[in-house]
Specification:
By secondary structure, the chain is an alpha/beta fold. It has one domain (3-125): 3-Layer(aba) Sandwich (Rossmann fold). The chain has four helices and five strands. It has helices at residues 15-27, 38-47, 66-76, 111-125, and strands at 7-11, 31-35, 54-58, 82-86, 102-107.
């Protein structure tokens, strides 16, 4: 798959960060849809789960957290990879991760430097 064929759902409750992520990944050639809450992302995903190859989500959001969103997506599409981003250090051993399809955890400050390589690695595994 080329970048232009990859469809990403990018979720952050800080609208400016979601739009920045969408623009950043769009400039790399990915097709990106932004959502500004876990609930909005879940609604988008439930309507058309086949429209996404990858989900990148913030962890700390009001309503539905990133881990909770990943749990719901796992129930609908257990093979779809999720990257969880956080303002603080998380690990794959944190509570709830065992019932998700979270494949990687990333500190928000490293999004621009590590995310592109992380996406490529995950999609090669798929």
């Amino acid at each position: 798959m080329t970048a232009a064929q990859i469809r990403i759902l990018y979720v952050d409750d800080e609208e400016s960060l979601a739009l920045l992520g969408e623009e950043f990944l769009g400039d790399l050639g990915y097709q990106v849809t932004s959502a500004f809450s876990g609930n909005q992302a879940l609604e988008l995903f439930q309507k058309n789960p086949q429209d996404f190859d990858l989900v990148i989500t913030d962890e700390s959001m009001p309503g539905l957290s990133g881990t909770e969103l990943a749990q719901k997506i796992f129930q609908l599409s257990p093979e779809l990879p999720v990257i969880l981003c956080s303002g603080h250090l998380l690990t794959m051993q944190d509570a709830g991760m065992e019932t998700t399809n979270v494949k990687a955890v990333l500190v928000k400050t490293e999004v621009c430097t590590k995310l592109p390589e992380m996406i490529e690695g995950l999609l090669k595994q798929a």
